[in-house]
Design brief:
Structural class: alpha+beta
CATH architecture of the largest domain: Alpha-beta prism
CATH topology of the largest domain: UDP-n-acetylglucosamine1-carboxyvinyl-transferase, Chain
Radius of gyration: 22 Å
Number of domains: 2
Strand content: 25-35%
Oligomer: single chain
CATH class of the largest domain: Alpha Beta
Strand order of the largest sheet: 21-22-1-23
CATH superfamily of the largest domain: Enolpyruvate transferase domain
Number of strands: 23
Largest sheet: 4 strands, mixed
């Protein structure tokens, strides 16, 4: 069982909170260190569960990982053996899929189970598999039996003649598929072109790190990326980009609680559309180069929230926006175009007194403003975990988040950090 949070709502919140390193950038960059036997040094590592699990996975395969400072690590992946991979850790996190690109490029043959992660709908890895097959990878899928019954899928990757550079047109703007092909292509013969590539800031940060390692990459941050393969890569030092998802979450939280809060270390350029939208909704924001300050204002008016690939409104901020919409005037349409399970948290908000109609797996209508009251809640994924914390902060009475492990995957000590700016949150440790 996981820890739970007890939240006392309706407390005045003010002060300063800083944004930590990006979890979504750290996990692929840690995976990318497997592309070289030379040491790599990574700074601004967020101390969250998903990052620790990725570190544990590569350690068990033979990588040496040393913490030089609290958030600074040195990784030396000189001797890697995929046969030592811990399948139980892979099954706990979706981002473990990012090991495929580096391992297929460096090791040639290995087995890996279907990754685990959030319950937000169907997330097949066909986009990854189809692209790798074009590059010369043979892939077999079979069932892993446990106690006489099939428990999960396992993929066997192998290359006989090495990877070949190809033009890859992805079936969708898949972040992890873009990252996997990007990493694999750095050690591939010839030139690889990725079209319909994801352009998210964490994809760009991975490309910056790979270029420091000696990779030949052009077009990072756009929807077409070109990679000329090298025979080997070297070690490099890199500072992980700040987490624009965490920054966006804290900004939305600040508006929801109507706090006088300054959020520092914000990559404001990565949040241009969100910040513009929030101002048009009536949010009182002061935007600086690397900081955003919110001040109490009148009720917001949010007509529509539609998620899109970067630089659009990210799906990972849809649930905090949904909570904020319960406090806005009138009807708000929430349209999440990507995952059919992203709206399940709205059922939890209805338990708190929200007026929400879920139209279909991708759309819902929220009527506000409504007074929320504290109840016991079940988060289903990382981002809804953070969203329900926000709901607890604005609700009357006591809210219980029964399983905080999801939020712990992506937000470092979120309860302690929020308490420093006025929240009343108590963590009950699992015993």
């Amino acid at each position: 069982m996981s820890d739970k949070l007890i939240i006392e709502g309706k407390n005045k919140m003010e002060g300063v909170i800083d944004v930590r390193g990006s979890k979504n950038a750290a996990t692929p960059i840690i995976a990318a260190t497997l592309l070289t036997s030379s040491p790599c040094i990574l700074d601004n590592i967020p101390l969250v569960n998903d990052v620790q699990r990725m570190i544990d996975i590569i350690r068990k395969m033979g990588a040496e990982v040393d913490f030089l400072e609290k958030r600074k690590i040195k990784i030396t992946a000189k001797n890697i053996d995929p046969k030592k991979m811990d399948f139980s850790l892979i099954n706990k996190m979706r981002s473990s899929i990012l090991l495929i690109g580096p391992l297929v490029a460096r090791c040639g043959a290995f087995k890996i189970p279907q990754p685990g992660g959030c319950i937000i709908g169907s997330r097949p890895i066909d986009v990854h598999l189809n692209a790798l097959k074009k590059m010369g990878v043979q892939i077999e899928e079979f069932g892993l039996k446990k106690n006489g019954s099939k428990s999960s899928d396992v993929y066997h990757f192998k290359t006989k003649k090495g990877l070949r550079g190809k033009e890859i047109v992805l079936d969708e703007f898949s972040v992890t598929a873009t990252e996997n092909i990007l990493m694999a292509a750095t050690l591939t013969k010839g030139k690889t072109v990725i079209k319909i590539a994801a352009a998210e800031p964490h994809v760009y940060d991975l490309a910056v790190f790979l270029k420091k390692m000696g990779a030949d990459i052009k077009g990072e941050g756009t929807n077409t990326i070109e990679i000329k393969g090298k025979e080997e890569l070297c070690g490099a030092e890199h500072t992980i980009t700040p987490d624009y998802m965490e920054a966006g979450t804290f900004i939305l939280l600040s508006l929801a609680v109507k706090g006088n809060i300054r959020i520092e270390n914000v990559p404001t350029k990565q949040l241009s559309l969100l910040l513009s939208k929030l101002k048009s909704f009536g949010g009182k924001l002061k935007v600086e180069k690397n900081a955003v300050t919110t001040t109490p204002g009148k009720d917001l008016c949010i007509r529509k929230v539609q998620t899109m690939p970067y630089p659009g409104i990210p799906t990972d901020l849809q649930s905090p926006l949904g909570v904020l919409s319960t406090q806005a005037k009138g009807l708000t349409l929430i349209h999440d175009t990507l995952y059919e399970g992203r709206l399940k948290y709205l059922e939890e908000l209805n338990k708190m007194g929200a007026e929400i109609v879920i139209c279909d797996p991708h759309r819902a209508i929220i009527n506000g403003p409504t007074r929320l009251h504290g109840v016991s809640l079940d988060p289903l994924d990382l981002r809804s975990g953070a969203a329900l914390i926000i709901a607890g902060l604005i609700a009357e009475g006591t809210t219980v988040i029964k399983d905080i492990s999801q939020a712990d995957r992506g937000y470092e000590e979120i309860d302690k950090r929020l308490c420093k700016i006025g929240a009343k949150i108590k963590r009950i440790k699992n015993t």
